[in-house]
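TL;DR need structure tokens for one chain.
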Amino acid sequence: MKNETEIKELIKEKYGQIAREGGSCGTSCCGDVTNIMADSYSSLEGYNPDADLGLGCGLPTEFAQIKEGDVVIDLGSGAGNDAFIARRIAGERGKVIGIDITPSMIELANKNVAKLGYDNVEFRLGDIDDMPVKDNIADVIVSNCVLNLVPDKEKVIKEIYRTLKPGGHFSISDIVLNGILPEGLKESAEMYAGCVSGAIQKKDYLGFIHEAGFSNVTLQKEKKIEVPDEILLQYISADELQSLKESKLGIYSVTVYAEKPSNAKGCCGPTCCN
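>> reply
TL;DR here they are.
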């Protein structure tokens, strides 16, 4: 797989294409796999179809326990889908900040927020492993199928801890693994953009959350993702596919909740949360 800089450029390219094409990823695995993973938002209040590009793997805002007046950060905010639902709950007294690495997504999200006329939703261009926000600013952080795209997941989780207020919490939907991916899937750029080959082991994912200092870590939802054979066979041989099935590899969408302790000390600088 490519190095960290190359991976981030890959994500910008692939998700920039999706933004420009209004949610279509053409015939690439990126579109095929994310469509398999996506849950429907249409029944949630605040849903805006123009902001739904079908790129999620859960419904984190449904579980996020957002309250009126909360400051909410949406990591990897895309066209604004979760941000707008969060704003519906947080209300006019709240504030929602969406962060995304892809300029075309920020442009699309800003068009959507202009149509809706919200003055307390903003979208910032930036990496979620180095968020352009101050310490201890958010009551709630949400994210939908984005951490798996970031090479340094441990760093993102530390950033979540830094930016949450003491007593704040997150609800994040993501893709995790139980078992080892075949090399052909690990090395595929399309499978990375499609949220599979960038996923890490479930125990490691939860371990990073505990190690960062979070408490009350809870698995709110879990579902197994079945990737069709015809997609897998684009990247591995028939023999490898058979071995994969025998290995009982599990690809899962999980929604994880955790709290920053109310007695947590604020970050004192760029190294204290490391």
